[in-house]
Amino acid sequence: MKLSEMRDLLSTRGIQLTKSLGQNFLHDTNQLERIVRLAQVQPGDQILEIGPGLGPLTEELLKAGATVFAIEKDQRLVTVLNERFTDPKSFTLLHADALEFLKRDRRDWSDWMLVANLPYSVASPILVEFALLPSPPKRVVVTLQLEVAARLMAKSGDDEYGQLSLFVQLQYEPKEWFKIPAGSFFPPPDVDSACIRLDRRHQPLLPPELTPKFFRIVKRAFSERRKMMFKLLKTEWPTARLHAAFESLSISPQIRAEALPLETFVALTKALSTQ
Ligand code: SAM
Questions:
Q1: What CA–CA distance (Å, rounded) separates 231 from 273?
Q2: Spacing, Cα 117 to ligand 1 middle (Å)
Q3: In this predicted model, what pLDDT tens digit does every residue of 148-186 receive, in sequence order?
Q4: What is the pLDDT of residues 203-233, one digit of tens each?
Q5: By three-state DSSP, how is residue 227 classified?
Q6: Ligand 1 site: residues with CB under 6 angstroms?
């Protein structure tokens, strides 16, 4: 979808874009094709698209032979999308807030891919919502703020390493990524953007029933970045139990959460679940 087509469509409909809904539309065909290539979309793939906007990415996904289930919050865009994509076999559209939908509809997405240019303000909570599911999408290819992409890829010791890195990496392995220039969007966003691919782990690191405990430990451990995580965890777990777990895993009680790798958080979750 060319920039001129986008502008025409918006002006004929009298649609003024809403900043709070992150309405920066991707009009650069090269970037759109690159996203579809990164997702390795094959004919028949089932794709969830959150925030299709005017449908530039939807168009490319359908061209690649995928079937798309899209969720769009803005009624004005829902009207446009329903006129643009009329084959019910390949395109289904839900008018809803995607975050609210994901919270109430905890379905099995394991055979699906999430491919989306996400609304930046809710990108992180949406990814966390998926990470909490027992059956999240097998692949996630999302465009979001470069800064958020860095957090998704970060390892212990990196400045960007934190709750989001751990929540998402429990389920997913970050793969390739690329920057998308601001000029590829209409209007250009104020922040840098990147597209990142995350593949679901073949072997889950934890059984699904321990995921909430992992989240609880990580949240508490990062609740005050400068404090030693042992002290922070003591507010929720008995000291003796924590000592035993830290000792069995050779974790120093002086360590801060940002220095502890994902695998050790996983081991700690298991240790605190068995004692
Ligand atoms: N995919 C389109 C593109 O690449 O041009 C639009 C992407 S734009 C960054 C984000 C889209 O998400 C907008 O269409 C916006 O209306 C929609 N949106 C914002 N918040 C949403 C939410 N909570 N649930 C569903 N859609 C949302």
A1: 19
A2: 7
A3: 999 999 999 999 999 999 999 999 999 999 999 999 999
A4: 999 999 999 999 999 999 999 988 999 999 9
A5: coil
A6: 21-26, 50-53, 56-57, 71-74, 77, 97-99, 117, 119, 122
